[in-house]
Amino acid sequence: MSISALSPTRFPGGISGLLQVASLLGLILLLFKAAQLYLHRQWLLKAVQQFPCPPSHWLFGHKKEFQKDQELQQVLKWAEKFPSACPRWLAGSRLSVLVYDPDYMKVILGRSDPKAHGIYKFVSPWIGYGLLLLNGPTWFQHRWMLTSAFHFDILKPYVAVIANSVQVMLDRWEQLISQDSPLEIFQHVSLMTLDSIMKCAFSHKSCAQLDRNSRSYIQAIEDLKDLSFSRIRSVFQQSDIIYSLSSNGQLFKQACKLAHEHTDRVIKQRKSQLQNERELEKIKRKRRLDFLDILLFAKMDDGNGFSNKDLRAEVDTFMFEGHDTTASGISWILYALAAHPEHQQKCREEVQTILGDEASITWEHLDQMPYMTMCIKEALRLYPPVPSVSRELSKPVTFPDGRSLPKGIIVSLSIYTLHHSPKVWPNPEVFDPSRFAVDSTQHSHSFLPFSGGSRNCIGKQFAMNEMKVAVALTLLRFELLPDPTRIPLPMARIVLKSKNGIYLHLRKLK
Fold it and tell me: Which residues cross the membrane (predicted)?
């Protein structure tokens, strides 16, 4: 009887029944998911009803409004029509509220809302959960522990290290400009800032600017920024499984591998150096430790050190943030000075007066450059290295004008739009360093190149020092001129970049 029950004549019927049940369950699941998305969209519509925005497609959101690489320009247009903030629909039930008013910024940055997981999770396979992505008590513990790496006792000797890295870059430029053709500067500046951060924060001995592995790392970072940004904006690349099977997913995986190999080499090299008793003695004599040494010697509340995963996350985070944002800042500053020769010359004369016959720049010189500092800040206003940051509201918020948002809404702080707002900065597209004169008055949250609040950039003083050194030494060696055939086009990415590169003509000064 048992053999008869499993006979071939009845087996296909059993398979057919199973397929029907599976199809029915799949349909029910699909309908349930559709209902879930519909209800969530209705909740979002109600949540942002106080904030008008342009009409959006029920599935593709505002995709048509945002032509390729025109995001910065489109948000500026929206800001003219919709004061303070405006919802942006990324897809059917994916939304963020763009904020570009200083009073709104002050409210959000004064809170302790976490980073928006739905956005930043896409970069976590690359940089891990270090200081940039962590939230809550773990973030606070890491931040407190690493703050000492940016004490002025630590930063002071870095000036000479940075100056040496800048000179290597300028020597290279002197060789390249003999052809009298414009030079695309961003990759050169990126290699220089990577060289500086590796020597300063990671005790790296060799010159990264002359290392092929460093060039591979820089390219991997460029690929990761583009791929991450593209994925955040695409409704079809949200699923991890689907993305991993796509060509972009494969490229992302390969770029992550290259980036991780670079940071793993740095960590391994430093651990090896610390096996040397002389090196350990040098560490013990230091009043304060460098960034990587803090991580390697740190003890958590439970008495254990950083896990390998946490260690690499912090190194990956700072290796990227410590060189790439500064490289963006320096490149745009040099372009702004090239485009405004009268301000360039005033900066040059100021540096020449300060340095006189001295061989190079020192820590004491950094506070003696008021006009150049004003120009740097004005360039950072026009070209903020990080165009936006995002938060997910952990509790409801009410803004000064009475409008409110509930818990769970993602808020994107558009720093670029804030810096270009005519309501905040009169004639915002004009390069005017006097905005940052000592006697000028500004809203406390009108200028945020390093974000603000408790989660502001931990390395902002290091970055400002590096910018001053790089700009000062460059102006002493070269006259900078823009390439009129290739005016840089700012483009939104994780870090601000130019769609067509940043090309300058460099003329060697006598």
Answer: 12-32
Give the separation between CA 217 and CA 179, rounded to whole angstroms.
Answer: 28
Residue located via tokens 């699941």: 29
Q: And the tokens for 144?
A: 């407190």
Please tell me whether residue 349 adopts helix, strand or coil conformation. helix
Cα–Cα distance between 51 and 65 in angstroms, integer?
A: 18
Task: Collect all residues with Cβ–Cβ distance below 8 Å to 327 and sequence separation of at least 6.
Answer: 186, 189, 190, 192, 193, 194
| CA 230 centroid distance within chain | 15
- Residue 356 one-letter amino acid: G
Q: What is the percent of the chain where pLDDT is above 90?
A: 74
The position carrying tokens 């009129």 is 484
- In the annotated binding site, the residues are 457
In terms of Cα–Cα distance, which of 446, 461, 438, 444 is closest to 415?
A: 446
CA nearest neighbour of 391 among 401, 405, 381, 377? 405
Cα 18 to chain centroid, rounded: 51
Whether 300 shows a pLDDT value over 80: the answer reads no
CA distances from 411 to 60, 324, 330, 347 (A): 19, 24, 28, 38
Residue 105, both tokens: 């910024």
Beta carbons of 300 and 466 less than 8 angstroms apart: no
pLDDT value at residue 510: 81
Which of 50, 49, 100, 94 has the alpha carbon at shortest distance from 74? 100
Binding site per annotation, positions for heme: 457
Secondary structure (DSSP) of 412-475: EEEHHHHHT-TTTSSSTTS--GGGGSTT----TTS--BTB-GGGS-TTHHHHHHHHHHHHHHHH
Beta bridge partners of 449: 451
Q: What is the pLDDT of residues 133-192, one digit of tens each?
A: 999 999 999 999 899 999 988 999 999 999 999 999 999 999 998 767 899 999 999 999
Contact assessment for residue 316 and residue 127, using Cβ atoms and an 8 Å cutoff: yes
Residue extents of the structural domains in the chain: 48-508
- pTM for the model: 0.92
> Rounded to the nearest 5°, which phi and psi values hold at 412?
-105, 115
Rounded to 5°, the CA angle 362-447-500 comes to 80
- For domain 48-508, give the fold: Cytochrome p450 (1.10.630)
- Distances in Å between the Cα of 212 and the Cα atoms of 16, 234, 262, 265, 326 are 60, 33, 11, 14, 21
Q: Round to whole Å and give the CA distance between 362 and 366.
A: 7
